[in-house]
């Protein structure tokens, strides 16, 4: 017969709650995905990680934008949490990361500047909003899904990307 020891029952309940919470976090993370690639300086990189966050526009703090970051590898949490994500340039300069950052207005259109991160460009170059396109499937306060693409040049070097994304939208703290 099973024990009815109250502390054992509480322990099991707490363990179950932790498992359910972890399952929810994993399910949310698993639903974030990017399928695509970027080319920088003639080299192609597969995009495998995506993050999206809502924040005040850097050029007009009265406006809210969504910044989407797509990379070929994981990004440290402290870098993701940084408002300007300046360390991404150093990581890319070292050849440890390649990616694209795109800023979207709440009107679902590219807004302001984004970045292409690649060692081929000395770390990072600016992307203008007119060099990006977004075809939204879902765009609301908590989720973004759709197709992002862009292309441009820096001197005689070219860059391009295309990606299908699905991501939960966090808020800059």
Task: Set down the secondary structure blueprint.
Layout: H1 6-30, E1 33-40, E2 43-47, E3 49-56, E4 64-71, H2 77-81, H3 87-93, E5 99-105, E6 113-118, E7 123-128, E8 132-139, E9 143-154, E10 157-171
Parallel strand pairs: 3-10
Antiparallel strand pairs: 1-2, 1-10, 3-4, 4-5, 5-6, 6-7, 8-9, 9-10
Main attributes of the structure:
10-stranded mixed sheet; alpha+beta; 3 helices; 2 domains; 173 residues; 48% strand
Explain this structure to me?
- By secondary structure, this protein is of the alpha+beta class.
- The chain has 2 domains: 30 residues; 140 residues, no CATH class.
- The protein is 21% helix and 48% strand.
- It contains 3 helices and 10 strands, in the order H-E-E-E-E-H-H-E-E-E-E-E-E.
- Strands 1, 2, 3, 4, 5, 6, 7, 8, 9 and 10 form a 10-stranded mixed β-sheet that branches.
- A hairpin with a 7-residue loop joins strand 5 and strand 6.
- The chain is globular.
- The relative contact order is 0.19.
């Amino acid at each position: 017969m099973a024990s009815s020891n109250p502390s054992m029952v509480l322990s099991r309940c707490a363990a179950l709650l932790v498992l359910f919470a972890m399952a929810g976090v994993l399910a949310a993370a698993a639903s974030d995905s990017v399928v695509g690639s970027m080319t920088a300086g003639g080299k192609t990189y597969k995009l495998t990680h995506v993050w999206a966050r809502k924040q005040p526009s850097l050029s007009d703090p009265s406006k809210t934008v969504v910044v989407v970051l797509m990379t070929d590898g994981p990004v440290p949490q402290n870098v993701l949490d940084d408002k300007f994500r300046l360390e991404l340039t150093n990581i890319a300069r070292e050849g440890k990361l390649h990616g694209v950052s795109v800023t979207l207005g709440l009107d679902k259109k590219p807004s302001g500047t984004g970045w292409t991160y690649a060692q081929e460009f000395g770390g990072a170059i600016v992307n203008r909003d007119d060099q990006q396109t977004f075809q939204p499937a879902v765009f609301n306060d908590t989720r973004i899904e759709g197709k992002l693409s862009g292309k441009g040049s820096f001197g005689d070097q070219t860059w391009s990307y295309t990606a299908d994304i699905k991501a939960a939208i966090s808020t800059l703290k």
